[in-house]
Write a structure and sequence with these properties.
The strands form two sheets. The protein has a seven-stranded mixed beta sheet with strand order 5-4-3-6-7-9-8, with helices on both faces. Strands 1-2 form a two-stranded antiparallel ribbon. It is elongated, with a radius of gyration of 21 Å. With about 280 residues, the protein is of the alpha/beta class. Helix 1 packs parallel to helix 4 and helix 6 runs parallel beside helix 7.
Length: about 280
């Protein structure tokens, strides 16, 4: 079977399974199997790959047809122009989270301190931590997560991108194991924020494959915001920044929680016009 025929067959399988972008996904999967770029597929469309590659490709197409996210099949997702390793142990980084990261980076560049300390609460894949380390010089990031498996992925990403000298990792339930003698310029978090009752209604790619621990934000979706807002003043420098990604219709509630201890609170919208980032500064 030629590359052209494989692409056609894979695309049809995905189309029949009602996958949103069947042609694109078939191409990405074949590139992953053959370890080649997209251009190669079109300039060598009459080539016949080894039977082992063909079997692997068809198996992965079937996995995608069952709903498994493309990023878990290829093992990588681009975030802030960086290749981030992802597995089912971590949430797949979303474009919306880049808005949160850009907000923090802009603030750190504005204050332009010779050394800054950042806490990434609930680091997951480490995409926020490594992005800040990549784009802000002289910053040191503490990445916290309750999941050992997630921390292993985050450490790999830091190592792969060359930032293990500026990112440290702590296994902790929120601030439990974070030293109270350490004060941060910024605490940033993309916590679980889906209300528990809505988990079952999520897209199957999310519901069936992404870790529920990284999705479930409690009965109202706000459990982790309340905890982090209550405890963060003990770990922030005076005037330090607290920045969150928030779920749909959650921004105003998060603002309300922050008002007592934080000032200059702002809401940033995503490209769809949805309130997506809330940030403020410790009074």
């Amino acid at each position: 079977m030629t590359i052209k025929e494989l692409l056609r067959k894979g695309s049809q399988i995905l189309k029949d399974a009602r996958i949103e972008s069947p042609v694109r996904d078939a191409g990405v999967i074949l590139c992953h199997v053959l370890n080649c770029g997209r251009l190669y597929l079109y300039t060598h469309e009459d080539n016949v790959p080894d039977e082992t590659y063909i079997k692997t490709y068809i198996n992965l197409i079937q996995e995608r047809a069952s709903g498994k996210p493309l990023q878990y099949i290829t093992g990588v997702n681009e975030f802030m122009s960086l290749p981030i390793l992802v597995t089912p142990d971590v949430l797949i980084p979303r474009p919306e989270t880049e808005i949160l990261v850009e907000k923090v980076i802009a603030y750190l560049k504005k204050i332009n301190e010779p050394k800054t300390n950042i806490l990434d609460m609930g680091t997951g894949s480490g995409c926020i931590a490594v992005s800040i380390a990549r784009y802000v010089e002289n910053c040191f990031v503490t990445a916290v997560d309750i999941s050992s498996d997630a921390l292993s992925i985050a450490y790999f990403n830091a190592m792969d991108l060359g930032f293990t000298d500026r990112i440290s990792f702590i296994k902790s339930n929120l601030f439990e194991k974070v030293e109270k003698t350490q004060y941060f310029d910024v605490i940033v978090s993309n916590p679980p924020y889906i209300p528990s009752c809505e988990i079952e209604s999520l897209q199957r790619e999310v519901r069936d494959y992404e870790p529920e621990i990284a999705l479930d934000g409690g009965a109202d979706g706000l459990f982790y915001y309340k905890r982090i807002i209550d405890e963060s003043p003990k770990f922030l420098k005076p005037g330090g920044m607290l920045a969150f990604e928030v779920g749909i219709n959650e921004a105003l509630a998060v603002v309300d929680f922050m008002k007592k201890m934080f000032c200059n609170i702002e809401i940033e919208k995503d490209l769809a016009g949805i309130d997506r980032v809330v940030s403020g500064f410790l009074r």
